[in-house]
Amino acid sequence: MWLGCTSPIADSLSKSPAISNRIVSLSPNITEVLFALGAGPRVIAVTRFCDYPADALALPKIGGFIDPSFEAIVSQRPDLVIGTKNTAADGVATRLSDAGIAVHLFPMETLADTRSAIQSIATLIGNKKQGDELVTQLDAGLADVAARVQQTQRRRVVVLFGHRPMVIAGPHTFVDELITLAGGINIAAGAKLAYPTWSPEAVAAALPDVIIDTSMGSETVAAADFALQWERWVDIPAVKRKQIVHLADTSLLRPGPRLVQGLLILAKTIHPEAFETK
Known about the structure:
With 278 residues, the chain is an alpha/beta fold. It has helices spanning 28-36, 70-75, 87-98, 111-124, 128-148, 174-181, 200-205, 223-228, 237-240, 259-270, and strands at 11-12, 23-25, 43-45, 80-84, 103-106, 155-163, 166-168, 184-186, 210-213, 244-246. The protein is built from ten helices and ten strands. Strands 1-5-4-2-3 form a five-stranded mixed β-sheet, with helices on both faces.
């Protein structure tokens, strides 16, 4: 299913212990991967955004995804820290490595990245079999959902991550790939950036059939209010078809074990007719 998969080049800044019993996660999707691999009991701290599974909510917090605290991490006495590649993680990872703590950062921007990261993390923590099984389950689940919409007419889709500014899913991202698997065409597939900023006018000019808002937190807008924002563009197919939707499910935002759930939600939103009970 995930074609062209290669092993990601993870930043391994120091040697990992033979068996890691005190693991700190630097991102929500890494937390989900660790629990899905059966390593939940070994996870000792997570970010304040790690809300799935429920057991993660009770764990000590080491800051956020973009502002992890070096001091908070060290205070937990971890023997392994795992995160995703981003500027904030790179900075704290260097300091942790200098302190003698094993750190591994994985790129997880695409489905291929995610697949390889899961397998690499599984091997790293001694749960290779669970990693292989999880990837096999993901492959089968994604293929099953994609098959449901294979015969549908593709619809033009835009997925928004925020309003101020309006950030949307661009090319070479897992969301772009999910749109394709869900029977859609990403209107920003030709953009130069992975997460470009567009004006509402630019989105309207692209004539999307479906507008999907995934914004959360302070930028969350009531579904009815969000739909009203687009009413002035009466020629947008999404407005005519009343296909302006707010989806507040984190599985759409995290490349990890719940990708199948995210794809199913996306496919049902883009092609509800493919899932109607006959």
